[in-house]
Amino acid sequence: MSEPVIDYEAVYQSLPGMVALLTPELVYADVNAAYERGSGHSSADLVGRFVFDVFPDNPNDPEVTGARSLRTSLLRVLATGERDSMPLQRYDVEDPHEPGVWRERYWSTVNTPLLDTEGKVVLIVHRVEEVTELIRARGTPEPGRTEVMEADLYTRARELQELNDRLRRAHAEEREVALSLQEAMLPARRQVRHQGTAVRYRPAAGSLNVCGDWYDMVDLVDGHRIGVSVGDVVGHGLEAAGVMGQLRSALSAASRVAAGPSEALNVVGRYAHVVDGAESATVVTTFIDFDAHTIRYSSAGHPPPVLVHPDGRVEFLDRATDPPLDARPDPRPRPEAATTFTPGATLVLYTDGLIERRREDIDVGLRRLAEAVCRHRTRDPEPLADIVLQELLPPGGATDDTALVVVRL
User: Three-state DSSP class for 102?
Assistant: First the structure.
């Protein structure tokens, strides 16, 4: 049995909805019979003419912007090669039988690109559904029109659902890539000789919020010393992950040669001035000397580390706090402070996702963290890190990234 020959011209002319084909110059290339009836213009009147010469905005009512909205939609289709569904809008039309008389009309419009083999837009399928009767009758359109309008609304709902699905898939893919990038850029445990440490990174709940937070641990020269830092980059996704990697690498290198944490942050602060996206980035870094039992620290706008002594005394390292990395133009040294510890103490560095809650003072979160670490201070770093996350993060996950470093001193 031979395949039927389809007369696409007949199909086009028989379409129940108003459909016009527009060139990339927004000139009518063709219209179907329904478009002729609905617009009140014959094909001969339309083909070859610029859309907005035929249907301009109503000059008597500057509040009506239908033509401008339609032009924006059509140009968006040409620029992106993607379908554009316009919201319901008023677009007055001049009566073809009474020049100078404008009729109030309402339209529901979808503009779809027709692409060539190279992906270039060669035509725009301009589909229009007039809903003036529905707007005027407010629920009592003329018989026979209800089904058409309900079908059109159903179609629009499906189009919006498809768009949302595409956005969710794109966000999920970006999140996976960002997490992989985050994992590749964060330091490996083998970079530090000291074994009494635990590190955790928890991405925010949701597909967009990921990769703003980071941690770093490095061996320092001269003696049994390590540098431990945590930081937070404003923003999320791949861009934040890239900025995070640059700042972490810069601080890791600076810490190995700097005389102290203040000098290391000075270097990274100057570097942050030339890194796009580093605005308002925060970081705290500590230099731990296990031989001298001292911690030197400096903070660039970051929440203070928590030092819990073996006897349960809690100390916040908050005596050397300065603005974020890229927030200070002057070259003066950042502040630095030092404290002492006895073996068995626990140092905890973290990002604000661990302690901050909406409509809650930050001191409440700091107190909650200190109490949790103090209560479980005899635990080894690995189980202690898990307990802290379990007790402090909301059951459904935090709305911001969380980085956590636990060091047994």
Answer: strand
Residues in the chain: 409
pLDDT digits (tens, 9 = 90+) for 242-272: 787 788 888 888 888 888 999 999 988 888 8
The helix (run of H) or strand (run of E) holding residue 67 is: helix 66-80
The token pair at 299 is 């903070």
DSSP structural state of residue 104: -
Amino acid of residue 371: E
What value does the mean pLDDT of the chain take?
81
Paired with 299 in beta bridges are 284, 321
CB 398, CB 351: distance < 8 Å: no
Residue that has been written with the tokens 């690109």 in this structure? 113
CA–CA dist 254, 330 (Å, integer): 19
Cα gap 167→173, rounded to integer Å: 10
- Give whole-number Cα distances, 258 to 63, 261, 266, 271, 390, in Å: 64, 7, 10, 15, 36
Between CA 347 and CA 315 the distance in angstroms is: 10
157 to 152, 153, 164: CA distances (angstroms)? 9, 6, 11
Is residue 281 within 8 Å of 324, Cβ to Cβ? Answer: yes
**38 three-state secondary structure:** helix
DSSP 3: P
- 151-192: pLDDT as tens digits: 555 555 556 666 666 666 666 665 565 555 555 555 555 455
Q: What share of the chain is helix, strand, coil (3-state, %, to 5)?
A: 35, 25, 40
Cα separation, 381 vs 408, whole angstroms = 6
Q: Which of 334, 330, 306 is nearest to 318 (CA)?
A: 306
- The pair of structure tokens assigned to 165 is 């699905």
